[in-house]
Amino acid sequence: MHSFQVSENIKRASPFLLGLLAVLLVLNLIVEVLPSSTAENPTQVFNDFSLPGAIDLCGEPIPLENLHVLEMLDREFTIAVWDRAQVFMWLKRSGRYFPYIEAKLAESTMPDDLKYVPVAESALIPDARSRKRAVGLWQFMTHTGRRYGLRKNRLIDERRDFEQSTEAAIEYLKHLYDKFGSWTLALAAYNCGDALLKREIRKQKVKDFYRLRLPLETERYVFRIAAAKIIMEHPNQYGFNLPPEQTYRPLWYDTVEVRLRRRLNLTDLAHSLGTDYRVLRKLNPQIRRHYLPKGHHTIKVPPGFGSKVEIALQQLNQIPPRNKNKTYESYYVVQDGDTLGHIAKRTGVSIATLRSLNEIHGSTIWVGQKLRLTP
Description:
Number of domains: 3
Strand order of the largest sheet: 1-2
Strand content: 5-15%
CATH topology of the largest domain: Lysozyme
Number of helices: 15
Largest sheet: 2 strands, antiparallel
Number of strands: 8
Radius of gyration: 30 Å
Mean pLDDT: 86
């Protein structure tokens, strides 16, 4: 009698209710079967990677006996080592950029570990841009870049130039080290600014990075550099097997000084040289538009093309007339975007000499100003 009533009710039920009843029956079967299926086929188990027993950063030991330090480093290390695709890209890009950085650090007698700073800053992406408008491999802010000779205007942004920004970063880090007396503090200042770090040292009466309480972003930043070092020094220990031939090769090019009488269309220059606009932009990421403004510039062209540039500029009517008095050898006319640091690099005359010869106090110069280069 009971089963007859159920069948009669089912007959009178709407198609929607019948469908819902079928779904519930299927779900009930899945719930009953799932536990036994999972027990027979357990999920994959991952083994964590361990930190080294001892590690230093720029020759300064990291106090792993300090529980806070150990856990902060372990956090950044674990996040990085399990971001497998990201680490592989670090290793690939390092083949292109590390050789130059290592050579420049060695020339300046600075720690080789500083090459991991751009890994933490930009993942070795030369055109990286942050939300705070820091730009380039070393993530320079505009005002800091200008202080170290990197021009930035609507046409040129030398923070994007790998070589120039590397030299500026080395100079800046050396200044921070001389100011604070340790590389970990210099790295912290590179991230949060020397004024903030100096203030916190004074308030907390401690001059040891590992004992200071700093903004979390800054604390994580220094440990992120250390984590990158741990992984990239011994990638095989952490499951990264990248054959040398799969790393990206350094870019090869000729570097040429040019003095333009008017702005130069890069497409025209590329065609005159027998290459492409895309190639010139790849080699010269500091150029922000389709043309170079008039004035003095250092540009990169494909290897073997350096000798062709002057001929190409003559064809494009870009070679300026000869100056019979050759006053350009004794003077430099300030152009838009110039800084004392930039002029010193262009002319080979030190900033101190430029200030002395031209009675400059501070760093203020103006467009059109004629600076003496010789006594």
